[in-house]
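Archive entry. Fields below.
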Amino acid sequence: MGGRFGDGPVVPEREDEIFHEDWHARALALTLASGTLGQWNLDVSRHARERLAPMDYSAFSYYEKWMGGLATLLVDTGVVTREELAGRAEPQQSPLAERCLKPENVAAVLAKGGPVDRPSNIAPAFATGDIVRVKPHAENETVSGGHTRLPSYAAGAQGRILRLHGSHVLPDSNAHGGGESPEPLYAVVFEASALWAHAEHPRDEVVLDMWQSYLLPVSDV
Amino acid sequence: MPHDHSHSDDPHSLLPSDPALRVKALEALLTRKGLVDPAALDEIIDTYENKIGPRNGARVVARAWSDPAFRTALFEDATAVVAELGYYGRQGEHMVAVENTDAQHNMVVCTLCSCYPWPLLGIPPGWYKSDAYRARVVREPRKVLADFGVTLPSETSVRVWDSTAEMRYLVIPQRPSGTDGWDEEALMNLVSRDSMIGTALAGTP
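PREDICTED_STRUCTURE:
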């Protein structure tokens, strides 16, 4: 939704307002705890939220999207059945119950994290300062309608390599069972006027992190 | 809050439409299946309400202001430096610190979802996750700053970082004048959460 018009003001909040409703906190915790069952990865879970029906996506508040995504993940992976979700079947003890996150393990699980930098046999094609162009379609190249981390507002734009972050898991592959397929990841800086017809200020910039396969070389003729 | 009834047959449509009841139903189902322990959920919530929050980031900023060697190391490899302070974990596996100067002001967003450096700042505020912030800050950062009561000089450029990968960005605001000789704890009190996202400046003495 980057660049969309018509959303109205941003409303600041006090720093001690962490959860606005009890169910927001519960939704977050339920999502994290379910993730530790190990039945999906981060990219699969992002894709589950993104592919909610557009009418639901726009109508749902933030944590409703999380719950919508979680319901999809649980059914897609067979962890729960549609009948159980609907309350039409007596819930059965899951064979995954031995993986259930226990309170005494929460701190360690949250502290462990899940780094996504990986060795890759794809060498960096670009160096800091190189001019590049973003590929023309902000879509998954392999799976029609699939997950990508390329925002549509940057498609086709010309930018400059700011830094190489190393090689990271490619979400476009990892969200669809295609393996981690790590490749070089860059911070790419764009002049605001390369992205917007009416840039707010001539020297403002936007930086996006982009995988190498999102980028095309630009010859410096 | 009620919403238009779902037109899809997605799994969530099988649950109650009221979001609070929907969460409750999911938690009850997963608990009965042995997949979720409600006490672990309590523990996760307690962690982000009381243990991990923007005071972590404020310590990093205050130390960067007062310790030149720390500052140099932070801009070289933020992940390693903040991990030494014990700030590592979920949604903070790959950290980059970016520095505000007279010439450049940095702001952070995730237009695709809500990526945010949890180990340093905790759970993102509602506005960070809002459609309005995600839609607008990449196109009109100065108007968004105005919503926060911040006006930048015209000679300061704005650089907005859209967190599209697993890199997590922490803004190091400019140290306010009149704070020479202040210790770390005193400096920390000038560092708000919003100043580390880039929608505010550091406080003044």
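CURATOR_NOTE: The first strand of chain B starts at residue 94 and ends at 99.
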